[in-house]
Write a structure and sequence with these properties.
The complex is a heterodimer of chains A (388) and B (230).
Chain A lengths: L5 E9 L2 E9 L3 E5 L6 H9 L6 E6 L2 E6 L6 E2 L7 E4 L11 H5 L9 H11 L15 H13 L5 E5 L7 H18 L2 E6 L2 H7 L2 E6 L2 E7 H6 L4 H7 L4 E9 L3 E6 L2 E6 L8 E5 L5 E4 L13 E12 L2 E8 L5 E7 L13 E6 L5 E5 L23
Parallel strand pairs in A: 3-9, 3-10, 7-8, 8-9
Antiparallel strand pairs in A: 1-2, 1-4, 4-5, 5-6, 10-11, 12-13, 12-15, 13-14, 15-21, 16-20, 17-18, 17-20, 18-19
Chain B lengths: L2 H31 L5 H13 L2 H12 L4 H4 L9 H25 L3 H9 L4 H12 L1 H16 L3 H7 L9 H10 L3 H26 L9 H8 L3
Classes of the chains: A alpha+beta (388), B mainly alpha (230).
Chain lengths: 388, 230
Amino acid sequence: MAEPRLLVNVEKRLAGFHLQARLMVEAEILVLFGPSGAGKTTLLNAVAGLTTPDSGEIALDGALLFRKGYPGRSVSVPARKRGMGYVFQAHALFPHMTALENVGYALWREADWRQRALALLERVDLAHLTDRYPDELSGGQQQRVAIARALATNPKVLLLDEPFSALDSAVRERLQNDLRAIQIELGLIVLYVTHRLEDAFALGQRLAVIREGCVEQVGPIEEVFRRPASARVAEVMGVRNLFRVRVADVTPAAAVLDWEGLRLEAPAEALVPGTEVIAYIQPEDIKVLYPDRPVGSAVQANQVDGVVIASQANAGARTLRVELLANGQIVELRFPSYSYAPLGLLPGERVRLSLRKAALAVLSSDEGAHAPTKTDRRSPTSVDSRGI
Amino acid sequence: MSWHAVLLSVQVTAVASCIILVCGLGLGLLLARTSFWGKSVVETAANLPLVLPPSVVGYYLLLLLGRGGPFYEWLGLRLLFTWPAAALASAVVGLPLMIQASRAALASVDPTLEQAARTLGSTETEVLWRVTFPLARRGILAGLLLGAARALGEFGATLMVAGDIPGRTQTLPLAIYDAIQNRQYDLASQMVLLMTGLAFFTLWAVRRIEQPRGRGTANHGEIALLARRG
Protein backbone atom coordinates (compact mmCIF):
# COMPACT_ATOMS: atom_id res chain seq x y z
CA MET A 1 0.00 0.00 0.00
CA ALA A 2 1.32 3.41 -0.95
CA GLU A 3 1.91 6.23 1.49
CA PRO A 4 -1.47 7.33 2.86
CA ARG A 5 -2.48 10.55 1.20
CA LEU A 6 -4.88 11.98 3.74
CA LEU A 7 -4.03 11.76 7.43
CA VAL A 8 -6.60 12.71 10.00
CA ASN A 9 -6.09 12.61 13.74
CA VAL A 10 -8.43 14.90 15.58
CA GLU A 11 -10.08 15.32 18.92
CA LYS A 12 -13.03 17.50 19.77
CA ARG A 13 -15.18 17.77 22.85
CA LEU A 14 -18.77 18.91 22.57
CA ALA A 15 -21.49 18.83 25.20
CA GLY A 16 -22.00 15.15 25.99
CA PHE A 17 -19.88 14.03 23.10
CA HIS A 18 -16.21 13.33 22.53
CA LEU A 19 -14.83 12.87 19.04
CA GLN A 20 -11.54 11.04 18.84
CA ALA A 21 -10.76 9.95 15.34
CA ARG A 22 -7.73 8.73 13.47
CA LEU A 23 -7.91 7.90 9.78
CA MET A 24 -5.50 7.21 6.95
CA VAL A 25 -7.02 7.46 3.52
CA GLU A 26 -5.77 6.58 0.05
CA ALA A 27 -7.24 7.45 -3.30
CA GLU A 28 -10.28 5.36 -2.53
CA ILE A 29 -13.81 5.55 -1.23
CA LEU A 30 -13.63 5.23 2.52
CA VAL A 31 -17.08 4.83 4.04
CA LEU A 32 -17.58 6.37 7.46
CA PHE A 33 -20.27 4.17 8.87
CA GLY A 34 -22.09 4.45 12.15
CA PRO A 35 -25.40 5.21 13.78
CA SER A 36 -26.87 8.71 13.79
CA GLY A 37 -25.15 10.95 16.28
CA ALA A 38 -21.91 8.96 16.21
CA GLY A 39 -19.90 11.99 15.12
CA LYS A 40 -19.51 11.20 11.44
CA THR A 41 -20.55 14.64 10.24
CA THR A 42 -18.45 16.39 12.86
CA LEU A 43 -15.46 14.41 11.64
CA LEU A 44 -16.21 15.33 8.04
CA ASN A 45 -16.58 18.99 8.97
CA ALA A 46 -13.27 18.90 10.82
CA VAL A 47 -11.57 17.52 7.71
CA ALA A 48 -13.24 20.18 5.56
CA GLY A 49 -12.27 22.96 7.94
CA LEU A 50 -15.86 23.83 8.84
CA THR A 51 -15.31 22.95 12.49
CA THR A 52 -12.14 23.43 14.44
CA PRO A 53 -11.02 20.42 16.47
CA ASP A 54 -9.67 20.99 19.98
CA SER A 55 -6.46 19.31 19.02
CA GLY A 56 -4.97 17.10 16.38
CA GLU A 57 -3.43 17.07 12.94
CA ILE A 58 -4.78 16.89 9.41
CA ALA A 59 -2.44 16.53 6.47
CA LEU A 60 -3.09 16.07 2.77
CA ASP A 61 -0.25 14.81 0.55
CA GLY A 62 2.29 15.94 3.12
CA ALA A 63 0.88 19.46 3.43
CA LEU A 64 -0.34 20.33 6.88
CA LEU A 65 -3.93 21.59 6.91
CA PHE A 66 -4.45 21.64 10.63
CA ARG A 67 -2.35 21.26 13.74
CA LYS A 68 -3.11 22.19 17.29
CA GLY A 69 -1.89 20.93 20.61
CA TYR A 70 1.00 19.13 18.94
CA PRO A 71 4.68 20.01 18.83
CA GLY A 72 5.32 22.69 16.27
CA ARG A 73 3.46 25.69 14.98
CA SER A 74 -0.33 25.65 15.14
CA VAL A 75 -1.90 25.58 11.72
CA SER A 76 -5.49 25.94 10.59
CA VAL A 77 -5.99 26.33 6.87
CA PRO A 78 -9.46 27.84 6.27
CA ALA A 79 -12.05 25.74 4.48
CA ARG A 80 -11.82 27.83 1.33
CA LYS A 81 -8.15 26.95 0.88
CA ARG A 82 -8.32 23.23 1.67
CA GLY A 83 -9.30 22.23 -1.84
CA MET A 84 -11.91 19.77 -0.73
CA GLY A 85 -15.25 19.25 -2.42
CA TYR A 86 -18.14 18.81 -0.02
CA VAL A 87 -21.54 17.33 -0.91
CA PHE A 88 -24.02 18.06 1.83
CA GLN A 89 -26.87 15.88 3.01
CA ALA A 90 -29.58 18.19 1.73
CA HIS A 91 -27.49 19.11 -1.35
CA ALA A 92 -27.24 22.77 -0.18
CA LEU A 93 -27.53 24.21 -3.66
CA PHE A 94 -27.83 27.98 -3.80
CA PRO A 95 -31.55 28.51 -4.39
CA HIS A 96 -31.04 31.87 -6.10
CA MET A 97 -28.78 30.43 -8.78
CA THR A 98 -29.44 28.17 -11.75
CA ALA A 99 -27.81 24.76 -12.03
CA LEU A 100 -25.11 26.27 -14.23
CA GLU A 101 -24.49 29.16 -11.85
CA ASN A 102 -24.31 26.77 -8.92
CA VAL A 103 -21.69 24.63 -10.62
CA GLY A 104 -19.84 27.72 -11.80
CA TYR A 105 -19.92 29.32 -8.34
CA ALA A 106 -16.30 28.56 -7.57
CA LEU A 107 -15.17 29.58 -11.06
CA TRP A 108 -16.71 33.06 -11.16
CA ARG A 109 -13.38 34.80 -11.57
CA GLU A 110 -12.52 32.72 -14.62
CA ALA A 111 -13.43 34.09 -18.03
CA ASP A 112 -14.49 30.66 -19.29
CA TRP A 113 -16.54 29.66 -16.24
CA ARG A 114 -19.58 28.96 -18.38
CA GLN A 115 -17.85 26.37 -20.56
CA ARG A 116 -16.20 24.73 -17.57
CA ALA A 117 -19.43 24.58 -15.58
CA LEU A 118 -21.18 23.15 -18.61
CA ALA A 119 -18.51 20.48 -18.97
CA LEU A 120 -19.03 19.51 -15.33
CA LEU A 121 -22.78 19.33 -15.82
CA GLU A 122 -22.20 17.13 -18.87
CA ARG A 123 -20.17 14.78 -16.73
CA VAL A 124 -23.23 14.22 -14.53
CA ASP A 125 -25.59 14.09 -17.54
CA LEU A 126 -27.39 17.33 -16.76
CA ALA A 127 -26.22 19.51 -19.64
CA HIS A 128 -29.85 19.89 -20.74
CA LEU A 129 -30.97 21.43 -17.44
CA THR A 130 -28.44 24.25 -17.06
CA ASP A 131 -31.02 27.00 -16.64
CA ARG A 132 -33.19 25.28 -14.05
CA TYR A 133 -33.26 26.54 -10.50
CA PRO A 134 -32.71 23.97 -7.74
CA ASP A 135 -36.39 23.86 -6.84
CA GLU A 136 -37.16 22.92 -10.43
CA LEU A 137 -34.93 19.84 -10.27
CA SER A 138 -35.69 16.39 -8.88
CA GLY A 139 -33.86 15.16 -5.80
CA GLY A 140 -31.46 13.05 -7.83
CA GLN A 141 -30.76 15.90 -10.22
CA GLN A 142 -30.12 18.27 -7.33
CA GLN A 143 -27.61 15.89 -5.84
CA ARG A 144 -25.86 15.48 -9.20
CA VAL A 145 -25.58 19.26 -9.50
CA ALA A 146 -24.14 19.28 -5.99
CA ILE A 147 -21.52 16.71 -7.00
CA ALA A 148 -20.64 18.67 -10.14
CA ARG A 149 -20.35 21.83 -8.05
CA ALA A 150 -18.05 20.13 -5.56
CA LEU A 151 -15.81 18.96 -8.41
CA ALA A 152 -15.50 22.47 -9.86
CA THR A 153 -12.50 23.37 -7.72
CA ASN A 154 -10.62 20.27 -8.94
CA PRO A 155 -10.45 18.93 -5.40
CA LYS A 156 -8.17 16.09 -4.35
CA VAL A 157 -10.66 15.16 -1.67
CA LEU A 158 -14.39 14.72 -2.00
CA LEU A 159 -16.45 14.64 1.19
CA LEU A 160 -20.01 13.36 1.09
CA ASP A 161 -22.40 13.53 4.02
CA GLU A 162 -25.26 11.06 3.56
CA PRO A 163 -25.64 12.49 0.07
CA PHE A 164 -28.19 10.07 -1.28
CA SER A 165 -30.24 9.29 1.79
CA ALA A 166 -33.30 11.20 0.61
CA LEU A 167 -33.41 9.50 -2.77
CA ASP A 168 -35.26 6.40 -3.85
CA SER A 169 -33.26 3.27 -4.42
CA ALA A 170 -33.09 3.26 -8.23
CA VAL A 171 -31.76 6.83 -8.32
CA ARG A 172 -29.42 6.09 -5.45
CA GLU A 173 -27.87 3.10 -7.22
CA ARG A 174 -27.30 5.13 -10.34
CA LEU A 175 -25.61 7.94 -8.41
CA GLN A 176 -23.49 5.48 -6.50
CA ASN A 177 -22.24 4.01 -9.75
CA ASP A 178 -21.57 7.50 -11.10
CA LEU A 179 -19.65 8.36 -7.96
CA ARG A 180 -17.50 5.23 -8.23
CA ALA A 181 -16.71 6.06 -11.84
CA ILE A 182 -15.79 9.64 -10.97
CA GLN A 183 -13.59 8.51 -8.07
CA ILE A 184 -11.64 6.17 -10.31
CA GLU A 185 -11.40 8.60 -13.21
CA LEU A 186 -10.13 11.50 -11.10
CA GLY A 187 -8.22 9.46 -8.53
CA LEU A 188 -10.10 11.17 -5.74
CA ILE A 189 -9.81 10.59 -2.03
CA VAL A 190 -13.44 10.12 -1.04
CA LEU A 191 -14.88 10.13 2.46
CA TYR A 192 -18.47 8.98 2.36
CA VAL A 193 -20.59 9.28 5.48
CA THR A 194 -23.59 7.00 5.81
CA HIS A 195 -25.61 5.13 8.38
CA ARG A 196 -27.01 2.78 5.75
CA LEU A 197 -25.37 -0.59 5.31
CA GLU A 198 -26.54 -0.84 1.71
CA ASP A 199 -24.68 2.37 0.83
CA ALA A 200 -21.56 1.08 2.46
CA PHE A 201 -21.66 -2.11 0.41
CA ALA A 202 -22.57 -0.41 -2.83
CA LEU A 203 -19.76 2.10 -2.65
CA GLY A 204 -16.96 1.48 -0.33
CA GLN A 205 -13.78 -0.39 -0.70
CA ARG A 206 -12.99 0.24 2.93
CA LEU A 207 -15.13 1.00 5.90
CA ALA A 208 -14.48 2.92 9.09
CA VAL A 209 -16.93 2.09 11.84
CA ILE A 210 -17.63 5.09 14.03
CA ARG A 211 -19.44 4.88 17.30
CA GLU A 212 -19.76 7.52 19.99
CA GLY A 213 -17.09 9.64 18.40
CA CYS A 214 -14.50 6.88 18.14
CA VAL A 215 -13.23 5.09 15.08
CA GLU A 216 -13.73 1.52 16.19
CA GLN A 217 -12.38 -0.34 13.21
CA VAL A 218 -11.11 0.36 9.71
CA GLY A 219 -10.77 -2.24 7.02
CA PRO A 220 -12.18 -3.80 3.88
CA ILE A 221 -15.92 -3.91 4.26
CA GLU A 222 -16.50 -7.65 4.31
CA GLU A 223 -13.59 -8.10 6.68
CA VAL A 224 -15.12 -5.66 9.14
CA PHE A 225 -18.32 -7.65 8.82
CA ARG A 226 -16.75 -11.05 9.16
CA ARG A 227 -14.26 -10.22 11.85
CA PRO A 228 -15.60 -7.32 13.88
CA ALA A 229 -12.77 -6.13 16.10
CA SER A 230 -15.10 -5.86 19.04
CA ALA A 231 -18.61 -6.51 20.21
CA ARG A 232 -19.23 -2.78 19.77
CA VAL A 233 -18.44 -3.01 16.07
CA ALA A 234 -20.57 -6.12 15.67
CA GLU A 235 -23.41 -4.27 17.34
CA VAL A 236 -23.03 -1.25 15.09
CA MET A 237 -22.90 -3.41 12.00
CA GLY A 238 -26.04 -5.18 13.11
CA VAL A 239 -25.67 -7.99 10.64
CA ARG A 240 -24.45 -11.50 11.44
CA ASN A 241 -23.99 -14.39 9.06
CA LEU A 242 -22.30 -12.51 6.31
CA PHE A 243 -20.22 -14.50 3.92
CA ARG A 244 -18.29 -14.18 0.72
CA VAL A 245 -19.50 -16.66 -1.87
CA ARG A 246 -18.90 -17.49 -5.52
CA VAL A 247 -21.81 -17.61 -7.90
CA ALA A 248 -21.62 -21.20 -9.17
CA ASP A 249 -24.67 -21.30 -11.35
CA VAL A 250 -27.76 -19.28 -12.14
CA THR A 251 -30.94 -21.12 -13.19
CA PRO A 252 -34.49 -19.81 -13.47
CA ALA A 253 -35.26 -21.54 -10.18
CA ALA A 254 -32.30 -20.55 -8.08
CA ALA A 255 -28.90 -18.94 -7.84
CA VAL A 256 -26.42 -21.53 -6.68
CA LEU A 257 -23.72 -20.12 -4.44
CA ASP A 258 -20.49 -21.76 -3.42
CA TRP A 259 -19.44 -20.90 0.13
CA GLU A 260 -16.00 -22.39 0.48
CA GLY A 261 -17.16 -25.77 -0.69
CA LEU A 262 -20.66 -25.59 0.70
CA ARG A 263 -23.35 -25.29 -1.97
CA LEU A 264 -26.21 -22.98 -1.11
CA GLU A 265 -29.31 -22.06 -3.03
CA ALA A 266 -30.60 -18.51 -3.08
CA PRO A 267 -33.61 -17.10 -4.92
CA ALA A 268 -32.96 -16.65 -8.63
CA GLU A 269 -31.35 -13.31 -9.39
CA ALA A 270 -29.48 -11.62 -12.19
CA LEU A 271 -26.05 -12.69 -11.00
CA VAL A 272 -23.02 -13.43 -13.15
CA PRO A 273 -21.68 -16.99 -12.68
CA GLY A 274 -18.10 -17.05 -11.51
CA THR A 275 -18.21 -13.69 -9.71
CA GLU A 276 -17.76 -13.28 -6.00
CA VAL A 277 -20.59 -11.75 -4.02
CA ILE A 278 -21.45 -11.06 -0.41
CA ALA A 279 -24.41 -13.00 0.91
CA TYR A 280 -26.05 -12.90 4.27
CA ILE A 281 -28.85 -14.45 6.21
CA GLN A 282 -30.51 -13.11 9.32
CA PRO A 283 -30.05 -15.24 12.45
CA GLU A 284 -33.83 -15.68 12.60
CA ASP A 285 -33.86 -17.34 9.18
CA ILE A 286 -31.68 -20.31 10.04
CA LYS A 287 -33.84 -23.17 11.27
CA VAL A 288 -32.93 -26.20 13.29
CA LEU A 289 -34.28 -29.46 11.79
CA TYR A 290 -35.60 -32.23 13.99
CA PRO A 291 -33.82 -35.46 13.08
CA ASP A 292 -36.96 -37.57 13.52
CA ARG A 293 -39.51 -35.47 11.66
CA PRO A 294 -40.28 -34.92 8.00
CA VAL A 295 -38.70 -31.78 6.58
CA GLY A 296 -41.09 -29.10 5.31
CA SER A 297 -40.68 -27.70 1.82
CA ALA A 298 -39.72 -24.23 3.06
CA VAL A 299 -36.61 -25.62 4.72
CA GLN A 300 -35.88 -28.37 2.20
CA ALA A 301 -32.97 -26.53 0.62
CA ASN A 302 -29.61 -25.66 2.13
CA GLN A 303 -29.48 -28.35 4.77
CA VAL A 304 -26.17 -28.33 6.60
CA ASP A 305 -24.69 -30.16 9.58
CA GLY A 306 -22.87 -28.41 12.35
CA VAL A 307 -21.78 -28.44 15.95
CA VAL A 308 -23.14 -26.06 18.55
CA ILE A 309 -20.25 -24.04 19.96
CA ALA A 310 -22.13 -21.51 22.06
CA SER A 311 -25.62 -20.97 23.39
CA GLN A 312 -26.91 -17.87 25.07
CA ALA A 313 -30.37 -16.98 26.30
CA ASN A 314 -31.69 -13.55 27.08
CA ALA A 315 -34.97 -11.64 26.97
CA GLY A 316 -37.07 -14.51 25.69
CA ALA A 317 -34.73 -15.29 22.82
CA ARG A 318 -31.91 -17.72 22.43
CA THR A 319 -28.81 -17.19 20.33
CA LEU A 320 -26.85 -20.16 19.07
CA ARG A 321 -23.49 -20.21 17.38
CA VAL A 322 -22.92 -23.23 15.18
CA GLU A 323 -19.78 -24.29 13.38
CA LEU A 324 -20.58 -25.87 10.03
CA LEU A 325 -18.89 -29.19 9.33
CA ALA A 326 -18.68 -28.61 5.58
CA ASN A 327 -16.49 -25.51 5.63
CA GLY A 328 -15.64 -24.73 9.23
CA GLN A 329 -17.51 -21.38 9.13
CA ILE A 330 -19.64 -20.17 11.99
CA VAL A 331 -23.27 -19.10 11.69
CA GLU A 332 -25.51 -17.51 14.26
CA LEU A 333 -29.14 -18.46 14.88
CA ARG A 334 -31.74 -16.71 16.95
CA PHE A 335 -35.16 -18.04 17.94
CA PRO A 336 -37.72 -17.67 20.72
CA SER A 337 -36.49 -19.51 23.81
CA TYR A 338 -39.52 -21.83 23.84
CA SER A 339 -38.67 -23.20 20.37
CA TYR A 340 -36.82 -26.46 19.93
CA ALA A 341 -37.44 -27.37 23.59
CA PRO A 342 -37.16 -31.14 22.92
CA LEU A 343 -33.68 -30.59 21.52
CA GLY A 344 -30.97 -29.81 24.03
CA LEU A 345 -28.86 -27.69 21.70
CA LEU A 346 -26.06 -27.54 24.21
CA PRO A 347 -22.52 -26.73 23.19
CA GLY A 348 -20.83 -29.74 21.61
CA GLU A 349 -24.02 -31.27 20.24
CA ARG A 350 -24.49 -31.93 16.54
CA VAL A 351 -27.39 -30.25 14.77
CA ARG A 352 -28.83 -30.17 11.30
CA LEU A 353 -29.75 -26.70 10.07
CA SER A 354 -31.51 -25.21 7.13
CA LEU A 355 -30.49 -21.81 5.80
CA ARG A 356 -33.87 -20.80 4.40
CA LYS A 357 -33.43 -20.36 0.69
CA ALA A 358 -35.95 -17.51 0.44
CA ALA A 359 -34.09 -15.56 3.11
CA LEU A 360 -30.59 -15.94 1.74
CA ALA A 361 -29.79 -12.48 0.44
CA VAL A 362 -27.05 -11.29 -1.84
CA LEU A 363 -25.78 -7.89 -0.76
CA SER A 364 -23.53 -6.83 -3.60
CA SER A 365 -20.95 -8.02 -6.03
CA ASP A 366 -17.36 -6.90 -5.63
CA GLU A 367 -17.23 -5.05 -8.91
CA GLY A 368 -20.36 -3.14 -8.17
CA ALA A 369 -21.69 -4.33 -11.52
CA HIS A 370 -24.60 -5.77 -9.70
CA ALA A 371 -26.58 -3.44 -7.54
CA PRO A 372 -27.30 -4.45 -3.96
CA THR A 373 -30.56 -6.28 -3.68
CA LYS A 374 -32.34 -8.07 -0.97
CA THR A 375 -34.64 -10.93 -1.47
CA ASP A 376 -38.05 -10.67 -0.01
CA ARG A 377 -37.47 -11.82 3.49
CA ARG A 378 -40.15 -13.05 5.82
CA SER A 379 -40.47 -11.17 9.03
CA PRO A 380 -38.22 -12.79 11.59
CA THR A 381 -41.03 -13.06 14.10
CA SER A 382 -43.07 -15.51 12.08
CA VAL A 383 -42.11 -19.05 12.92
CA ASP A 384 -41.98 -21.77 10.33
CA SER A 385 -44.00 -24.43 12.13
CA ARG A 386 -42.95 -27.18 9.78
CA GLY A 387 -39.33 -26.61 10.58
CA ILE A 388 -39.82 -26.86 14.32
CA MET B 1 -48.21 72.47 -2.03
CA SER B 2 -44.93 73.44 -0.46
CA TRP B 3 -42.54 72.06 -3.04
CA HIS B 4 -39.55 73.08 -1.00
CA ALA B 5 -40.76 70.81 1.77
CA VAL B 6 -41.38 67.93 -0.64
CA LEU B 7 -37.92 68.19 -2.17
CA LEU B 8 -36.29 68.52 1.20
CA SER B 9 -38.18 65.51 2.47
CA VAL B 10 -36.97 63.48 -0.50
CA GLN B 11 -33.43 64.63 0.14
CA VAL B 12 -33.55 63.93 3.86
CA THR B 13 -35.20 60.53 3.36
CA ALA B 14 -32.65 59.50 0.71
CA VAL B 15 -29.71 60.31 2.95
CA ALA B 16 -31.44 58.73 5.95
CA SER B 17 -32.11 55.57 3.91
CA CYS B 18 -28.44 55.24 3.07
CA ILE B 19 -27.53 55.51 6.75
CA ILE B 20 -30.29 53.05 7.63
CA LEU B 21 -29.12 50.56 4.98
CA VAL B 22 -25.49 50.57 6.03
CA CYS B 23 -25.96 50.73 9.81
CA GLY B 24 -29.06 48.54 9.89
CA LEU B 25 -27.54 45.80 7.78
CA GLY B 26 -24.34 45.91 9.79
CA LEU B 27 -26.12 45.72 13.13
CA GLY B 28 -28.58 43.14 11.82
CA LEU B 29 -25.65 40.98 10.72
CA LEU B 30 -23.91 41.45 14.04
CA LEU B 31 -27.01 40.42 15.97
CA ALA B 32 -27.92 37.53 13.65
CA ARG B 33 -24.49 35.97 13.37
CA THR B 34 -22.53 36.64 16.52
CA SER B 35 -23.01 36.20 20.19
CA PHE B 36 -21.15 38.45 22.56
CA TRP B 37 -21.40 39.60 26.11
CA GLY B 38 -24.13 42.18 26.48
CA LYS B 39 -25.79 41.31 23.20
CA SER B 40 -29.28 41.57 24.64
CA VAL B 41 -28.48 45.04 25.97
CA VAL B 42 -27.37 46.14 22.52
CA GLU B 43 -30.50 44.63 20.99
CA THR B 44 -32.74 46.42 23.43
CA ALA B 45 -30.93 49.72 23.00
CA ALA B 46 -31.22 49.43 19.22
CA ASN B 47 -34.99 49.18 19.58
CA LEU B 48 -35.30 52.11 21.98
CA PRO B 49 -36.13 54.72 19.31
CA LEU B 50 -39.30 52.73 18.58
CA VAL B 51 -40.73 53.37 22.01
CA LEU B 52 -39.04 56.51 23.30
CA PRO B 53 -40.89 59.79 22.87
CA PRO B 54 -39.43 61.73 19.92
CA SER B 55 -38.43 64.47 22.32
CA VAL B 56 -36.18 62.07 24.19
CA VAL B 57 -34.55 60.89 20.96
CA GLY B 58 -34.19 64.53 19.99
CA TYR B 59 -32.59 65.35 23.32
CA TYR B 60 -29.98 62.62 22.86
CA LEU B 61 -29.30 63.86 19.37
CA LEU B 62 -28.84 67.39 20.72
CA LEU B 63 -26.23 66.03 23.11
CA LEU B 64 -24.56 64.21 20.22
CA LEU B 65 -24.60 67.08 17.74
CA GLY B 66 -24.51 70.16 19.92
CA ARG B 67 -21.68 72.08 21.53
CA GLY B 68 -19.68 69.64 23.64
CA GLY B 69 -20.94 66.66 21.68
CA PRO B 70 -18.64 64.40 19.67
CA PHE B 71 -19.82 65.60 16.26
CA TYR B 72 -19.15 69.22 17.22
CA GLU B 73 -15.93 68.85 19.17
CA TRP B 74 -14.17 65.93 17.49
CA LEU B 75 -15.40 66.06 13.93
CA GLY B 76 -15.87 69.80 13.78
CA LEU B 77 -19.34 69.41 12.26
CA ARG B 78 -21.88 72.16 12.96
CA LEU B 79 -24.96 70.14 12.15
CA LEU B 80 -27.63 71.57 14.43
CA PHE B 81 -30.45 73.27 12.53
CA THR B 82 -29.25 72.02 9.14
CA TRP B 83 -30.91 69.43 6.92
CA PRO B 84 -28.22 66.76 7.65
CA ALA B 85 -29.35 66.86 11.27
CA ALA B 86 -32.89 66.15 10.05
CA ALA B 87 -31.51 63.21 8.02
CA LEU B 88 -29.69 61.88 11.08
CA ALA B 89 -32.78 62.17 13.26
CA SER B 90 -34.88 60.40 10.61
CA ALA B 91 -32.28 57.65 10.30
CA VAL B 92 -32.19 57.04 14.03
CA VAL B 93 -35.95 56.48 14.28
CA GLY B 94 -36.06 54.35 11.13
CA LEU B 95 -33.07 52.23 12.07
CA PRO B 96 -34.75 49.76 14.48
CA LEU B 97 -37.14 48.61 11.77
CA MET B 98 -34.26 47.85 9.45
CA ILE B 99 -32.27 46.11 12.17
CA GLN B 100 -35.16 43.84 13.09
CA ALA B 101 -36.07 42.98 9.52
CA SER B 102 -32.54 42.39 8.27
CA ARG B 103 -31.63 40.46 11.38
CA ALA B 104 -34.56 38.09 10.89
CA ALA B 105 -33.83 37.76 7.18
CA LEU B 106 -30.14 37.05 7.72
CA ALA B 107 -30.84 34.55 10.49
CA SER B 108 -33.17 32.64 8.19
CA VAL B 109 -30.44 31.96 5.63
CA ASP B 110 -29.41 28.31 5.92
CA PRO B 111 -25.88 28.26 7.40
CA THR B 112 -25.17 25.13 5.34
CA LEU B 113 -25.32 27.26 2.20
CA GLU B 114 -22.64 29.53 3.64
CA GLN B 115 -20.58 26.48 4.59
CA ALA B 116 -20.94 25.22 1.03
CA ALA B 117 -19.71 28.57 -0.30
CA ARG B 118 -16.68 28.38 1.99
CA THR B 119 -15.76 24.92 0.74
CA LEU B 120 -16.02 26.35 -2.78
CA GLY B 121 -13.27 28.84 -2.03
CA SER B 122 -15.22 31.92 -0.96
CA THR B 123 -13.87 34.38 1.59
CA GLU B 124 -16.25 35.60 4.29
CA THR B 125 -16.89 38.80 2.33
CA GLU B 126 -17.68 36.85 -0.81
CA VAL B 127 -20.01 34.58 1.16
CA LEU B 128 -21.91 37.66 2.34
CA TRP B 129 -22.23 39.27 -1.06
CA ARG B 130 -22.83 36.17 -3.15
CA VAL B 131 -24.90 34.01 -0.82
CA THR B 132 -26.15 35.62 2.39
CA PHE B 133 -27.30 39.02 1.15
CA PRO B 134 -28.92 37.72 -2.06
CA LEU B 135 -30.86 35.13 -0.07
CA ALA B 136 -31.93 37.67 2.53
CA ARG B 137 -32.69 40.35 -0.05
CA ARG B 138 -36.45 40.35 0.44
CA GLY B 139 -36.25 40.91 4.16
CA ILE B 140 -33.51 43.49 3.76
CA LEU B 141 -35.50 45.42 1.15
CA ALA B 142 -38.67 45.24 3.26
CA GLY B 143 -36.77 46.55 6.27
CA LEU B 144 -35.24 49.34 4.24
CA LEU B 145 -38.63 50.41 2.88
CA LEU B 146 -40.18 50.42 6.33
CA GLY B 147 -37.24 52.35 7.73
CA ALA B 148 -37.41 54.84 4.87
CA ALA B 149 -41.15 55.30 5.36
CA ARG B 150 -40.62 55.90 9.04
CA ALA B 151 -37.80 58.36 8.24
CA LEU B 152 -40.02 60.24 5.82
CA GLY B 153 -42.64 60.69 8.50
CA GLU B 154 -40.24 61.74 11.24
CA PHE B 155 -41.40 64.83 13.09
CA GLY B 156 -40.51 65.30 16.74
CA ALA B 157 -36.80 64.63 16.88
CA THR B 158 -36.31 66.49 13.61
CA LEU B 159 -38.03 69.51 15.07
CA MET B 160 -35.67 69.49 18.04
CA VAL B 161 -32.36 69.13 16.18
CA ALA B 162 -33.10 70.72 12.82
CA GLY B 163 -35.82 73.16 13.71
CA ASP B 164 -38.62 74.20 11.41
CA ILE B 165 -36.99 76.63 9.01
CA PRO B 166 -39.02 76.88 5.79
CA GLY B 167 -36.85 76.18 2.76
CA ARG B 168 -33.94 74.93 4.88
CA THR B 169 -35.04 72.30 7.37
CA GLN B 170 -38.79 72.18 7.00
CA THR B 171 -39.74 68.68 5.83
CA LEU B 172 -43.25 67.62 4.85
CA PRO B 173 -44.49 66.63 8.32
CA LEU B 174 -43.26 69.94 9.71
CA ALA B 175 -44.82 71.82 6.81
CA ILE B 176 -48.14 70.15 7.57
CA TYR B 177 -47.89 71.22 11.19
CA ASP B 178 -47.08 74.79 10.13
CA ALA B 179 -49.92 74.87 7.63
CA ILE B 180 -52.39 73.87 10.31
CA GLN B 181 -51.00 76.40 12.74
CA ASN B 182 -51.53 79.06 10.07
CA ARG B 183 -55.02 77.70 9.26
CA GLN B 184 -53.99 76.85 5.68
CA TYR B 185 -56.19 73.77 5.69
CA ASP B 186 -56.18 73.27 1.91
CA LEU B 187 -52.42 73.20 1.86
CA ALA B 188 -52.35 70.87 4.86
CA SER B 189 -54.81 68.43 3.33
CA GLN B 190 -52.83 68.23 0.08
CA MET B 191 -49.70 67.33 1.97
CA VAL B 192 -51.60 64.96 4.23
CA LEU B 193 -52.90 63.17 1.16
CA LEU B 194 -49.41 62.92 -0.30
CA MET B 195 -47.99 61.53 2.93
CA THR B 196 -50.82 59.03 3.27
CA GLY B 197 -50.37 57.91 -0.31
CA LEU B 198 -46.64 57.43 0.12
CA ALA B 199 -47.08 55.50 3.37
CA PHE B 200 -49.79 53.32 1.85
CA PHE B 201 -47.68 52.59 -1.21
CA THR B 202 -44.68 51.70 0.93
CA LEU B 203 -46.58 49.25 3.13
CA TRP B 204 -48.22 47.73 0.07
CA ALA B 205 -44.82 47.32 -1.57
CA VAL B 206 -43.45 45.66 1.58
CA ARG B 207 -46.31 43.18 1.45
CA ARG B 208 -45.61 42.46 -2.19
CA ILE B 209 -41.92 41.96 -1.55
CA GLU B 210 -42.55 39.52 1.24
CA GLN B 211 -45.31 37.51 -0.32
CA PRO B 212 -43.82 35.35 -3.09
CA ARG B 213 -41.76 32.92 -1.06
CA GLY B 214 -41.65 34.51 2.33
CA ARG B 215 -38.00 33.60 2.68
CA GLY B 216 -36.21 35.60 5.34
CA THR B 217 -39.09 37.55 6.70
CA ALA B 218 -40.10 38.41 10.20
CA ASN B 219 -43.55 39.28 11.43
CA HIS B 220 -43.90 42.53 9.62
CA GLY B 221 -47.45 43.04 10.66
CA GLU B 222 -46.05 43.85 14.05
CA ILE B 223 -43.23 45.95 12.68
CA ALA B 224 -45.61 47.85 10.42
CA LEU B 225 -47.70 48.75 13.46
CA LEU B 226 -44.65 49.99 15.28
CA ALA B 227 -43.75 52.00 12.22
CA ARG B 228 -46.85 54.11 12.62
CA ARG B 229 -45.83 55.30 16.03
CA GLY B 230 -43.93 58.47 16.82
